[in-house]
Structures are given as structure tokens and as C-alpha cells.
Amino acid sequence: MKDKITDFFSSRVGIVVTGALIGILGPLLQKFGNPKNMGVCVACFERDIAGALGLHRAPVVQYIRPEIIGFVLGSLIAALLFNEFKARGGSAPIVRFILGFFAMTGALVFLGCPWRAWFRLAGGDLNGLVGLIGLAIGILIGIFFLKNGYNLGRSHTCKKAAGWAFPGIMIALLVLAIMQPRFGADGTGPIFNSESGPGSMHAPLIISLCAGLIIGFIAQRTRFCTVGAIRDVVMFKDTHLVSGVLALGVFAFLTNLVLGQFNPGYSNMPIAHSNLLWNLLGMILSGLAYTLAGGCAGRQLFLGGEGDMDAGIFVLGMITGAAFSHNFGLAGAANSVVDGVTKVWQPNTQTMAAVILGLIVCIIIGLTNRDKID
Amino acid sequence: MANNTKAAKAIDARGLSCPQPVFLTLKAIEEGNFPIQVTVDNATAKANIRRMAQGKKFNVNIEEQGEDIILTISK
């Protein structure tokens, strides 16, 4: 029975069903309350978690997103059931932390991870396409390094208990999300919840958690990865993963049509700006960082759930990066409308510096962590 | 690694991130010394290598030895 399930999930049909299911659940979660054109955005939701923990002070993006917890725990359950839980780590952990940090820096300039780029496009936001082009360019740069011997070295098997550390953090977050402790100054915190803005928009906790668990479970079985999808096509002419990712886009589009959530446009899209150059550059940085780390933001969560501590470190880097992005004023913001005229978001000096610094750091990592190729 | 003597080319891809196991296997296939024996330690690498090699019409034999998974790729 288990072998049959494994064979199904390894098949082309399996990965397409996975993408389709994520594509349907994302817009449904929006219907239940999640922010528009966000579905499940790993970067945005990790940023909201950073805010909920008080690691940054942007009051509109603070909420412990149960989807993220569900992704990790769903993957954990799948890995345990199918004997794939394996504690491992030690493959350049701090480098992975830095890659996660800059993946988030880039993601928050664009305002989304690769998943959200697809959800944005499927909701009619053409900037999503710009983001996907940027992502592809970042992945191509990463492939250049991979082909020249880039790797972060081997991970090693660790004590089983260590593999539980990252899922354990997620269980702790779930406890905090449910308990909502209030003993901070002026009766606020230590867990913060947005009263307005994207952080205040969310599906009921139980629905978000269940959706996350389902996605985490099937994504662990199918190895769903939005970065691996493009990478495998370019490097190996392998269309397996990309067929799942395309299914996500198509089914999210169809679900949006059915739910009346498809609104095509470019300059006044929900939680989005239309600065072409910085949408591109943000996603180039993210795409490069994900490729150097071996998988997209979602995939890192699923790997963390099956005991991969290096992936867990990458996620912690992303959450830290989110805190820095808001504290240093690096994150993008939606276009504004002044006197009926759309004003396109423009990056400040520190945003530009951070993206360029991120690209330089990633290139240095790509050049310096390598084996000689014959 | 088991059956080392039988393999014309042996690759140890244990502990390597995606896409290293597939990338190293593909390079060995291009070199053309069969059979190629690849040792991995996780189901993702096993599935990816198997898919790639079978897609190129090679035979893939899979043997599990404790934590190691040994894929033997032959023409």
C-alpha cells in the first residue's frame, strides 16, 4: 500500500495533482480571509511570523501564520509515516542562514516568494510574470555556479532528536498562536497581531493549519519545488517538477475565475508595486539564493520537516532577514494613489544597497564554495 | 560501498543537496563508463536519479543497505 502511494506521488500525475491542489487551496484560503493574490506566500507568511514575535515593528504584517507551521508538520507526518524522517545537517549552516537572509531580502522587495509570484499572476497581477522572469534569471545564474562545481559540502547524519528541533520550533509557534500570551508592556505582546493591513487578513486558524498540513504532507511526498522546476528543465531537460508548478498556476487561475478573484492589471494590484527594475532585481536575488541553497522557500520548509537541519537554518535565516528588512526599511510597499494618480513605489538607498550587497554576497558564495570540475 | 568491484564508475552522492546527485550521475553517464554505481542516502535523490536514468532508457537497479541506497545504472 505504502509503495503504491509512493509510486503515485513520484509519478507525473502525482506532481500535477500536488500543484493543482496547492493552486486550488491558495485562492480558497483568500476566500476564507487570506490577503489578496497571496494564497500561501512562504516569504510573506514567514515575515508575518517575524512580526508576530516582535522581531520587527511593522504593525500591518504581524501574525503567526498557521500555514507555515502546517507545511513543516505535514511534511514531518509524511516523513515519519513513510520512513523518510532523517536527522541530518552540517552542510555549511551559516552560509545557508545567509542565503536564507538574502532570499528574504529579495522576496520582500518584490513582495513575495515564487509561490506568490504564481498566485499573483493567477490573480491577474502581471507583475507576477515579471517576478517569475526575475526568478528564472536568478536560477540561471545559480546554474552557472552549479555547473562550475558549486556545492556547500555534504550533510551528515545526526542524532534523531536533533531532527525534531525545527519541527519543535513550529510546535512552539503553534502553542503561541493558540495561547496568545499577553504580558508585554501596556498589555500588548509578546505575541503581536495586526489590526489592519495584510497581517490582519487571515483565514480561521484551523482552516489555515489544515490546509498547511495537507500541502506539507503531499509536498513532502512529491518533492514539490518551484525553483527545482526551472533548474531541472535547464540542467537536465526534466519537466517533472515544472509540470506540477504549471498545474499550480493553471488551477489557481481557474479557482480565481470561479471565485471572482481574477482581476487583471499592472499598476494597482493588491499588495504589489509595479517597479519593473526592482521587481526583477528582487527576484533575481531570491532565485539565486534559493538555487544555491538547493530549493525554494516552500521546499526548505518541507525538508526541515523531514529532519534536514540545514534547510531549517535557511528558514531561520529567512525569518531573520524579514526582521532586518522591515527594521532597516528595505522591504517594498504597494503603489500609492495620490490625488487619483498612481505613484509607483521607489526603493530608498538602503534597499538598493541591500539588494546589490545580497547579489555580491551570493556571487561570492557561488564562487568560493566549489570543487574542481574536470 | 557494496559491489564496488563491479562498477566501472562509482559515485558517492550521500549528503549532497539537490541537484548534485543527479548532476554527478549525468556527468558519469556522459563519460560513458558503465555500469555506474551511485550511492545516496535519501529517497529524493534516489527518485531523481532513477527518473533521469530511466528517462534516458538505461536500466536502474536499486539496492538498499542500511541507510545507503545504491543505484546501479547500466545499458
Layout of SSEs?
The complex is a heterodimer of chains A (374) and B (75).
Chain A: H1 2-10, H2 12-31, H3 42-52, H4 66-81, E1 88-89, H5 93-110, H6 114-122, H7 127-147, E2 156-157, H8 160-163, H9 165-179, H10 205-222, H11 226-236, H12 240-259, H13 276-293, H14 297-305, H15 309-327, E3 336-338, E4 341-343, H16 349-368
Antiparallel strand pairs in A: 1-2, 3-4
Chain B: E1 9-12, H1 20-31, E2 36-40, H2 43-55, E3 59-65, E4 68-74
Parallel strand pairs in B: 1-2
Antiparallel strand pairs in B: 2-4, 3-4
Helix pairs in contact in B: 1-2
Descriptive notes:
The complex is a heterodimer of chains A (374) and B (75). By secondary structure, chain A is an all-alpha fold. Chain A has one domain. Helices cover 64% and strands 3% of the residues of chain A. Chain A has helices at 2-10, 12-31, 42-52, 66-81, 93-110, 114-122, 127-147, 160-163, 165-179, 205-222, 226-236, 240-259, 276-293, 297-305, 309-327, 349-368; strands spanning 88-89, 156-157, 336-338, 341-343. Chain A has a two-stranded antiparallel ribbon. A two-stranded antiparallel ribbon of chain A has the order 3-4. In chain A, helix 4 (66-81) crosses helix 10 (205-222). The mean pLDDT of chain A is 96. Chain B is an alpha+beta fold and 75 residues long. Chain B has one domain (4-74): Translation Initiation Factor IF3. Chain B contains 2 helices and 4 strands, in the order βαβαββ. In chain B, strands 1-2-4-3 form a 4-stranded mixed beta sheet, with helices on one face. In chain B, strand 3 (59-65) and strand 4 (68-74) form a beta hairpin. Chain B is globular and about 25 Å long. Chain B starts with 8 loop residues before the first strand and ends with a strand.
